[in-house]
Structure formats: structure tokens, C-alpha cells
Amino acid sequence: MQQIYTYRDGGLRSAWLRGFNHAGAALQRVGLKPSLDPDDIVQAAVREAGAFDTGGDSYREPLEQFVTALEEESSTSTFGRLIIRKTLTSLLAHRIQLHTWTEANPEARNEEIKQPWVIVGLPRTGTTLLSMLMGLDPQSRAVLQWESRSSAPPSTLANAHTDPRIAACEKQTDSLHKLNPALRAMHPFGATLPEECVPFMMLDIRTLGMETQAHVPSYGRWVDACDMTPAYVQHKKALQALQYGRPTERWALKTPNHLWCLETLLKFYPDARIIWTHRDPGPVTASVSSLNTTLQSVFARNLQPKVIGQHWLQKMQTGIERGIAYDEKAQAQGQPDWCFHLHYSDFMRDPLAAIRGIYAHFDEEPSPLHERRIDAWLREKPQNEFGRHGYDPKDFGWSYEELAEVWKPYTERYGIEREK
Question: Which ranges of the chain have pLDDT less than 50?
């Protein structure tokens, strides 16, 4: 019988690390804790990168906002502080390395990112599967998880499958699964699997992806209100580097974060072909709350599922409100076909037919080879390979009926089917 994992299966399994956190909690009470000072983190990033030029200081304000929220609002454990410090250091080191490489290879700035597929639906709405299948197009390419962590120097056609960073990424993923085995059932991880755009936006510490690390509501409000242009500068710079290393006709990109800032996305990629995935937001809300509670369980001292759930409900409402506002504006300007609306139920019922519909919307059709690859992938890839993600809205303070009422304006506007 297949194992079901819930957020209760998250958290640290290591007795040694739990003891480490227990000792660290005593030290934190007297002011002794791993430093999250922004200057200290930047200096550590410079040492890791072996260079010092960050390509501007746009990252500084979001870094300070995030660290302040961590200190004032999050009950982060000693181990959590160490990992978050390492994450921030690695992100800024990646930023430095990308900027240094681009300065040494200025011709990469001439790379044009043409007509990318961009999937923008909420989390847990089939975006990961869709990005995998879109990336099987011989003319398209998805960003892989290992590339998202180290885009410079970019891989080349000669070493794309043997780059040692692939093995290093797999090792990190294995470590994550040992720390928190439940995550394998909740989200696909793997060095050569498609990744979201969030890691590139993280190079400016300016993305809702940072909110998956800890409960940082003031930072979340800041991100909702900030100019996302600097994050997309990093996003495009990374894509250009990867495309320069391995020539690419068209990208298959995805992250829910784009829904919050569609105008900025289209400022950078005006010919983007946008796919907005829709699913009953009741299960989506419960699933997202469970996933983020599980993610934070490794880092938090006092886990509060209902607080985390409420935060992500409000966060997703903001994203949907902005998506609808953009949709209404596009309709008013005579652009009713600015995106393709893909319903999760249709996609799950017949993935190939759904992809044919996407291509037809943009006056194209998938090639015979692409269709054969989709068929082969669907045959070979088992569902719920590492167990099944179980979630219950009651754990986060709701019922499905209550969530249906909350989301009614959205579901009625787009005719989204109820699942629960």
C-alpha cells in the first residue's frame, strides 16, 4: 500500500540535529546565535564566489527586509539559521559569479529570449507536469534544477550531461530528503528535472520563494508592494548565459510568482506565450499550506500550521487578484487571447490533447516527435513514485466549504470545477 505523507511527517529526523537545536536554543536565549547580519552574509558570498562585484546593490533592501523579518517574526532554530544563512550566501555568490561571467562574455547580452512558454498558475495546479511535457518539445528547453543553482559558467553542448555540478546538485537533494523525507512525496526534486524561475529571481532576494523558508509576513508584504524589475534583470541575465552556452530556440518556463507581476514579466518578454493553469483552489490552498508547513518544519522551533496556512491563503489571493486585474485590462484593450487558460481537470484527463490545445491557441501544433515523447514519458513515469501527499484543510483552520466561498469570485469567473 502506498504511503501517505502529511506535514506531520516533516521536520528533522536526526537525533543529533535535534540535540544541536536544543543546545542552540539555550544559547540563543543569551544572545549567541549564527549571524544573519547582511554585511557578514555579503562578505561570505564574496569569499565563496572568489569575486566581489555584485552588479549593483538592488539585492540589499530585500536582503535587509528578509533578515529583519526573520529576526522579529520567525521562530527559526539554530540549524535553521545556519541553513538560511548558507542559502543567502550561496544566492549572492551565484549572483556575483553570473555577473562576473557576463562581464567577461558581454556577447551573451545579445542573446534574444524569443517567444518563451511561460506557465503562471498557482502552485499545485499541474504546473510542474506541464513544464516537463512542454520541455519535451525538440524546439524548447526547460531550466533544470542544477542549472538554476549555478548558471555561470553555463553548461555547453560538450558537457551538458557530464557537468560535475549535476552530481553536486543530486547530493544536495539527497541530503534534503534525508533531513525531510516527506518532501519527496510532495514535490519532484532532481538535478535534471525542470525547475521554476524562482531561483533566478532569488538572486535579487526578491520573490515569494523566500517565504517558503520561514514565516516572514512583513517581508511578504514588502515583496507584494516592491518593483520586481531587478528580479527580472537577474532572471534574463541567467537565461541569456544558459542560452549562450547551449543555443536554445525557445524556453519552457514556469513559476506562480509571475502571476503577481505579469506587467513586469511582459516588459522583459513581450512575446511570451503565457499559460495560466486553473484548479479548484480549495485543495490547492490546503496542499500549498501543507507543503510550506513541511518545508518550514526543518527550520522552525515552534511550527504553527494555521498561521502558515493563513499567510499562504492571503498570498495566493493577492496573486489571483492581480492576475484577474491584468486579464480584465487585456480584455478591455482588445486582447482576449493574451494567455491560454488551462483547466487542471482537462489536463489530467488528457495531457496530450491539452498540449495540442495550447499550441493551437498560439497558431502552432506540437511536432510528431514531441507527441511521441509525451506518450513515452507518460507511460514511463509512475505517479506518486515516492508516496502520496495527504492534506486536510482542517489542519489549517478551514473546511472545503469555507474555502469554496472564499474563492467563489475566482472559480465562477473561470468556471473551475470543484474537486472536494
Answer: none
